[in-house]
Specification:
The structure holds 2 protein chains of 2 kinds. Chain A is an all-alpha fold. Chain A is built from 18 helices and 2 strands. In chain B, helix 2 packs parallel to helix 6 and helix 6 packs parallel to helix 7. Chains A and B meet through helix 7 and helix 8 of A and helix 2 and helix 6 of B.
C-alpha cells in the first residue's frame, strides 16, 4: 500500500544506532564494571518487547483480541525444556523447533476459529484463553510432556562466543526483539498490514474490497505464534525451572495486553514502548519492595490508558514526539549524574518525567482531540448545513485555544 | 452485464429472497425499489457474496461469482458501496481510498484512478489526510462512493446512498452517481427515495417480500398504479 520507501534513511539509521548501542553494552559492562543486573534487566525488556509485539501483530493489527498468548509462550518454553532440559539438546537447535511448535499451535487454532467456526470478538478471546488453559492442563496431567513435576533446565550447551549465560540471554533476547519489531514494522508498512488494519476496522468490507481475510488472519496468527514460542523457548533458560502454571498461566497474556494497550495497538512502536514502560515500573516497584502496590499502579495505568488514550501512548507520542523525548534524555542524565541514581532507577525517573510532559498540556489539546478522535459526527447531524458547514473546524479550534 | 438469475437467500429457516432475477448493463443505472424489509440490502449483499445464497446464479459476463473466493469478487468487477457507508473511520480519507484499490486488478492503475477520483471529488483531495470519521455525512457518502470507484469496478452496488442526507445533499449525491455512468460503470441503485431515483435510473425493479413484483423502464414504472400509490403517494 505504501508508495514510499519501506525504510527511509532516518528510520534505518535509527534502528542501526539503537542496535549498535545495545550490542556494546555487555562488553561495556565487563570493562567498566557496572552492575550485572543491568544486563538481566535489559534482557527482560527485550523479552517483553518480543512477547508484546508478537501479541500485537495479531491482536492489535487484525483486531482479534487474544487471551491465549501463553499457549505459544508456554508451548515454546516446554519445547526447549523437554528437548534441552530433559534430552540434553543444545539450546540453539531447540529454538527453531519451538518456533514450529508455536506456529503449529497457531495454525490449528486458526483453522478451528477462522474456518470451521467463524469466531470473533469476545468468543475469540475466550476461545484463545481456553486453548492456552487446555494445553496447560494437558501438560500438567500427561507424563510424557510433564505430568506436574516441572522440568529443571540444568545447563544447556550453546556456542561459547555468546559469552556467559547472562550475555547469551542478552544477545539472543536482543536478536529476537529486533526480529519481532522489524516484522511488526514491515507488516505495518506493507500491503499485508493495510489489509490487516482493514480487517480490524470492518472485516466484511475488507473482504469485499479484495482483502483475502482468511489467509491474512492465518498468516499473522502463525507469525505471532512463532515469535512468541521462540521467545518462550529462550526464556526457559532465564526461568530455570519450568512448571505448567508458570508457562500457561495468566501472567503472560495479562502483561502483553497491558503493555500493548498502554503503548498503543495501531503502531509497531506501541508494544515496544509499553514493554519498556511497564517492565521498568514493575522492576523498580519490586526493587523498592512495593510489588503489591505495583499491581495497583499498573491497574491505574491501564484504566487511564483505556479511558483517555484510545491510540495508546504511542499515538500521543507520534503527535508530539520532541518534548517528551528531550525530557527523557535530560531527566535520565540528571538523575544518573547529579542524582546518583542507578541506570535503571534513572530510566524510571526519566520515564515518569517524560510521561508527565507527554500529558501535561491536556487542556490545550483537549479541543483538538474532540475534533479528531470521535467516531465522526452523528449521522445526519451536519448534513443540513452541507459539506461547507464545518469547514476546517478542528484546526480553527486549535488555533483559538493556542491564542488564549 | 451483471446478471442475477433465480437467486434465493435465507437467514436460517426464513427465506428472504425468492427467485430473484435482474440485469444491470454497463454504463446504466438500474433502480432496486421496495419498502423496508423487502430484502433489498440482502440482495445487494448476496450479489457481493457477503452472505451465502441457497440457490441461483450471479454472473458478470462469463464469470460465475459464486465460484470465486469472496475476496476475488471485486476483481471480477463488482464493488459495493454498503448501507451506512461503513468507512474505516479511524483511517484517513486517502487511506480509505487506497484500500478501495486493494485488489490486484485495481492496484495496477492505482495512481490514475486516484487522480480520477480526486478530480471528480475535489472535496476528498482537500481532506485527504483527515480522518474519515471526522467528515460530514455528505462527505462520508462521497468517500464511500470514491472508495467503491477505486476498485475500478464494472458494476457498483449502491445501498441507500441518500440515507441520512438532506434533500440538497441527496440531489448532489445523485448527480455524482449519474456521473459514474460516464465511466462506463453500471450501477445497481437501492433506494427508498423512489421519485429521485427514477429521475436518474432508466430501468427499475420493485422488490416486495423477497420477490420481484414489477420491473420496467422509467416511464412504465412512473405510469404504474402500484408505484404511484405505494411509493410516490400520488
Amino acid at each position: 500500500m505504501t508508495r514510499r520507501q519501506l525504510f527511509p534513511p532516518r528510520v534505518a539509521l535509527g534502528f542501526l544506532a539503537v542496535v549498535a548501542v545495545l550490542l556494546t553494552i555487555p562488553t561495556l559492562q565487563q570493562r567498566v564494571g557496572f552492575p550485572l543486573y543491568n544486563l538481566i534487566f535489559l534482557y527482560l525488556v527485550f523479552f517483553w518487547i518480543t512477547q508484546a509485539t508478537s501479541w500485537n501483530i495479531l491482536s492489535g493489527y487484525s483486531g482479534y483480541f487474544s487471551f491465549g498468548q501463553a499457549a505459544f509462550y508456554g508451548g515454546g518454553m516446554y519445547t526447549t525444556a523437554i528437548l534441552g532440559g530433559r534430552h540434553g539438546w543444545e539450546l540453539l537447535p531447540t529454538l527453531p523447533v519451538a518456533a514450529v511448535v508455536g506456529g503449529t499451535i497457531a495454525a490449528l487454532t486458526g483453522l478451528l476459529v477462522f474456518r470451521l467456526r467463524k469466531l470473533s470478538g469476545e468468543i475469540f478471546a475466550l476461545f484463545t484463553l481456553a486453548v492456552a488453559l487446555g494445553i496447560g492442563a494437558l501438560v500438567n496431567n500427561w507424563g510424557v510432556l510433564d505430568g506436574g513435576r516441572g522440568i529443571p533446565m540444568g545447563r544447556l550447551d550453546y556456542p561459547a562466543w555468546l559469552g556467559d549465560t547472562t550475555q547469551m540471554l542478552y544477545y539472543l533476547g536482543l536478536l529476537l526483539a529486533l526480529v519481532a519489531v522489524l516484522v511488526a514494522y514491515v507488516i505495518q508498512h506493507s500491503r499485508f498490514g493495510a489489509g490487516l488494519f482493514a480487517i480490524r476496522d470492518d472485516e466484511k468490507v475488507a473482504e469485499a474490497l479484495g482483502v483475502p481475510t482468511f489467509r491474512y488472519k492465518m498468516l499473522v496468527f502463525i507469525l505471532s505464534g512463532m515469535l512468541a514460542a521462540t521467545s518462550g523457548g529462550l526464556h526457559a533458560m532465564q526461568v530455570g525451572f519450568i512448571s505448567p502454571d508458570g508457562a500457561f498461566g495468566l501472567r503472560i497474556p495479562v502483561f502483553v495486553i497491558l503493555m500493548s494497550v498502554v503503548g498503543g495497538r495501531r503502531h509497531w512502536f506501541g508494544p515496544l514502548l509499553g514493554a519498556v514502560l511497564i517492565h521498568t515500573v514493575t522492576d523498580r516497584m519490586a526493587g523498592a519492595g512495593y510489588a503489591e502496590a505495583n499491581q495497583i499502579v499498573l491497574a491505574a495505568v491501564l484504566i487511564a490508558a483505556t479511558l483517555f488514550l484510545r491510540q495508546g501512548i504511542s499515538g500521543r507520542l507520534v503527535e508530539r514526539p520532541v518534548p517528551p523525548t528531550v525530557t527523557f534524555v535530560v531527566a535520565f542524565l540528571l538523575a544518573f549524574t547529579v542524582g546518583g541514581q542507578t541506570a535503571i532507577g534513572s530510566a524510571a525517573v526519566a520515564i515518569g518525567a517524560a510521561l508527565v510532559v507527554l500529558f501535561l498540556p491536556d487542556r490545550w489539546l483537549r479541543s483538538w482531540r474532540r475534533g479528531t478522535d470521535g467516531d465522526g459526527p452523528p449521522a445526519g447531524a451536519d448534513d443540513a448545513a452541507g459539506p461547507a458547514g464545518d469547514d476546517e473546524e478542528p484546526e480553527l479550534d486549535r488555533a483559538q485555544e493556542a491564542g488564549r | 452485464m451483471l446478471e442475477v438469475r433465480g437467486l434465493h437467500a435465507a437467514y436460517g429457516e426464513a427465506e428472504v429472497l425468492r427467485d430473484v432475477s435482474l440485469t444491470v448493463p454497463e454504463g446504466r443505472i438500474v433502480a432496486l425499489l421496495g419498502p423496508n424489509g423487502a430484502g433489498k440490502t440482502t440482495l445487494v449483499k448476496a450479489i457481493a457474496r457477503l452472505i451465502p445464497i441457497t440457490a441461483g446464479q450471479v454472473s458478470v459476463g462469463e464469470v460465475d461469482l459464486q465460484r470465486l473466493p469472496r475476496h476475488r469478487v471485486v476483481e471480477a468487477g463488482v464493488a459495493i458501496v454498503p448501507e451506512g457507508r461503513r468507512l474505516f473511520t479511524q483511517m484517513t480519507v486517502e487511506e480509505n481510498l487506497l484500500l478501495g484499490a486493494y485488489s490486484h486488478t485495481a492496484r495496477a492503475s492505482l495512481k490514475e484512478t486516484l487522480a480520477l477520483v480526486y478530480a471528480r471529488f475535489p472535496r476528498l483531495e482537500e481532506r485527504a489526510n483527515q480522518r474519515a470519521g471526522t467528515l460530514s455525512g455528505g462527505e462520508q457518502q462521497m468517500l464511500a462512493l470514491g472508495r467503491g470507484l477505486m476498485a475500478t469496478p464494472r458494476f457498483l452496488l449502491m445501498d441507500e446512498p441518500s440515507l441520512g442526507l438532506s434533500p440538497l445533499l441527496t440531489a448532489q449525491m445523485f448527480a455524482l452517481i449519474e456521473g459514474v455512468t460516464e465511466l462506463g460503470v453500471g450501477v445497481l441503485l437501492v433506494e427508498q427515495n423512489v421519485a429521485r431515483t427514477l429521475e436518474i435510473a432508466g430501468y427499475g425493479y420493485v422488490l416486495e417480500q423477497g420477490r420481484i413484483v414489477q420491473e420496467g423502464d422509467r416511464e412504465a414504472l412512473l405510469g404504474s398504479e402500484r408505484i404511484r400509490e405505494a411509493y410516490l403517494a400520488l
